[in-house]
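Minimal example, chain plus dihydroflavine-adenine dinucleotide.
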Amino acid sequence: MSVADTVRVLPHRTMRSLFISLSHRGSLARMAVRSPLTRPVVARFVAGETLEEALAAIATLKRAGLRTTVDVLGESVTSAELAAAAADRYVATLPALASRGLDANVSVKLTQMGMEIDPELCLSNVMRILDAARAVDGFVRFDMEDHTRTDATLALWQKAHEGYPKTGVVIQSALRRSAADVERILAAGGRVRLCKGAYDEPRSAAYVDRSTVDANYAKLMERLLTSGSYHALATHDPKLIARAIAIAEREGIGRDRFEFQMLYGVRRDLQRTLAERGYTVRIYVPYGHEWFPYFMRRLAERPANVGFMLRAIVKEETRRLRGH
Ligand code: FDA
């Protein structure tokens, strides 16, 4: 059996845990960054390493009728300098987007802003990003990391939202606490991006069975759609998307009252079909050098991606050995 076939038959949860645990391995990251073999596969999910590359990818998406939010890749920084440098990159990205007529909309991870080093440092980095957003009337979304960061992320979002309302936060249907969190965010007039959750969570905090995660997504999605405020449904799951459309039609909720969100490089066919049908579809566009943990989570979501990557590597390696 080939490695790709082995990967295909492993249980989904085993694969997911394996790739998520690999996402924390810095040595692997360095090896992967150096290897030219992984680059074409990474390029499917990551818009480039530089801002200029990302701007070109975003302009292409805009021409196809797609909206965007930008993630300057990075997470779990280990020093105040790195956190400040990450905030600087967002501060530079927002006006660059606005000056080219692109969506000044960014997605930020708080562990990249120094949340684990010092909450005050994190807050001051976030405030700088909010100032940059305010200057161009932009939007800032706080990504959600694993369940140990949920409280801190929601608290910081709340603070940010009080000073600048064009902000939003993410809720994961995998977490048992999410229904209560949604109610708190709605009461504060906040905007939610609903996703399933990309992290390997313990049973005490999360549903591990996929059908329960999906059922919870459907329940939270209905609550958000019928709440009267504007939210984002982040999923590539065709069943949930069809259900969202059915709820909206049943309740008379206009296509301008919510949006779908999808990841760069994932279900590009569906992205375009929905946009052509008149729905707002926003693509999450990551760029930067620190793509390894993000890329590993994308592999974890879909075992077929691993086979796809391994086949590309074998093909390249065979070509190299044959001297092409
Ligand atoms: P599911 O995993 O069931 O996939 C449904 C279908 O989509 C699959 O059958 C496949 O066709 C396709 N698909 C999904 N993932 C794929 C992949 N990687 N490669 C190829 N095909 C794929 N998570 C989080 O914890 N915190 C966050 O802040 C965010 N933010 C976020 C923003 C946006 C815009 C999106 C779309 C997603 C996130 N996520 C996230 C990730 C999210 O939690 C989840 O891991 C992925 O979206 C995959 O879940 P789906 O809802 O697509 O369903």
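DSSP finds 14 helices and eight strands in the chain. The chain has two domains: 1-46+302-324, 49-290.
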